[in-house]
Design a protein that fits this description.
Largest sheet: 8 strands, mixed
Radius of gyration: 22 Å
Structural class: alpha/beta
Strand content: 5-15%
Low-confidence stretches: none
Helix content: 55-70%
Bound molecules: nicotinamide-adenine-dinucleotide, magnesium ion
Oligomer: single chain
Number of domains: 2
Length: 329
């Protein structure tokens, strides 16, 4: 594994993470094959990127390391139908999110090394940063170390992704799974989108123009987040006016108060005790009825209509949806 050219890696799944991992590892000198369902939606993309694409069963047969980069909810079935009987004896099984292993949906064969390498960023960013000579921080963990070299494999893989250029931190499957779910639910995706929608609704219901409300609560958020990214909350405070700072100090904690934190703790408890995953699995098995309803409600929110009109005037967004459009948490 450490001598990259001799290590055969099979990447199963060619979506957000799969594509970025396959391209970065190939550019780092690994021998990469992509495993996909024949005729599936991303097969053409992998071929266009110059990869040999095989069925998942064929791709994993002679691989030294298999990275499972399909959606989380199909991994259990993929493991049972394909991986369990086709993985090479003593191979390394790698995940980018610990959910299935941590919550016991997948119990990996005992001869395997089982590791986790999770870039702390969406796939498009993992690729973009690599291409410009930088990297996205990666966290890694070892669940099963049959060979005694599992950690070495995980580090070599994370290095091949470009993670070593940023930072690599050791974690556990439990910590990665629970913190990743909490972050995307309470802050990054769920928290941030609900905060923006509530702010927009408050202004529009008070009679202000939707266009102005959009700029105030959504468009300008990028500038603030860029400052967080570069230098934390301190850097943001250095860039905003004294008036904005005073307003932040007195009103921020009125909006995000102790009751919000108490509900964040409830969200975390549901993640930790398996309630969230149980509900998500049931929803998935039922054919995603509520998921689709929620998704439609977000798409139908008035902020989306005004946003579409305003973004049509941002010439730099035209004809290029931008890498961010491929990004997911
Ligand atoms: P995705 O939905 O973008 O892509 C999934 C890929 O798997 C597609 O190529 C799809 O065609 C393929 N696929 C679906 N079912 C399959 C099957 N039965 N057999 C073979 N291939 C199949 O997925 P993603 O968002 O990249 O997530 C992959 C993994 O990475 C998940 O474990 C996720 O939690 C983790 N992760 C994702 C991100 C992210 O930014 N998206 C970040 C960190 C970790
Ligand atoms: Mg939402
Ligand atoms: Mg302002
Ligand atoms: Mg504040
Ligand atoms: Mg996640």
């Amino acid at each position: 594994m450490t001598s990259s050219t001799s290590t055969k890696i099979a990447i199963v799944g060619y979506g957000s993470q799969g594509r970025a991992h396959a391209l970065n590892l190939r550019d780092s000198g690994f021998d990469v094959t992509v495993g996909l369902r024949p005729g599936g939606p991303t097969e053409a993309k992998a071929k266009a990127d110059g990869f040999v694409v095989k069925s998942p069963a064929e791709a994993v047969k002679d691989a030294d390391l298999v990275a499972v980069l399909t959606p989380d909810m199909v991994q259990k079935k993929l493991y049972e139908d394909v991986l369990r009987d086709n993985l090479k004896q003593g191979a390394v099984l790698l995940f980018a999110h610990g959910l299935n292993v941590h919550f016991g949906m997948i119990s990996p064969r005992e001869d395997l090394d089982v590791v986790l390498v999770a870039p702390k960023g969406p796939g498009a960013l993992v690729r973009r940063e690599y291409e410009i000579g930088r990297g996205v921080p990666c966290i890694y963990a070892v669940y099963q170390d049959k060979s005694g070299k599992a950690e070495e494999f995980a580090l070599a893989y994370a290095g091949g992704l470009g993670g070593a250029r940023a930072n690599i931190i050791k974690t556990t499957f439990k910590e990665e799974t629970e913190t990743d779910l909490f972050g995307e639910q309470a802050v990054l995706c769920g928290g941030a989108s609900s905060l923006v929608q509530a702010g927009f609704e408050t202004l529009v219901e008070a009679g202000y123009q939707p266009e102005i409300a959009y700029y105030e609560v959504l468009h300008e958020l990028k500038l603030i987040v860029d400052l967080f990214y570069e230098g934390g909350i301190t850097r943001m405070l250095e860039f905003i006016s004294e008036t904005a700072q005073y307003g932040d100090f007195v009103s921020g904690p009125r909006v995000i108060d102790a009751s919000v934190k108490a509900r964040m703790k409830d969200v975390l408890t549901d993640i930790q005790n398996g309630t969230f995953v149980r509900n998500w699995q049931a929803e998935y098995d039922a054919g995603l009825p509520n998921y689709r309803k929620f998704q439609q409600a977000d798409k139908d929110h008035p902020i989306e209509k005004v946003g579409k009109e305003l973004r049509a005037k941002m010439v730099w967004l035209q004809g290029n949806a931008g890498p961010a459009s491929e990004e997911q948490a």
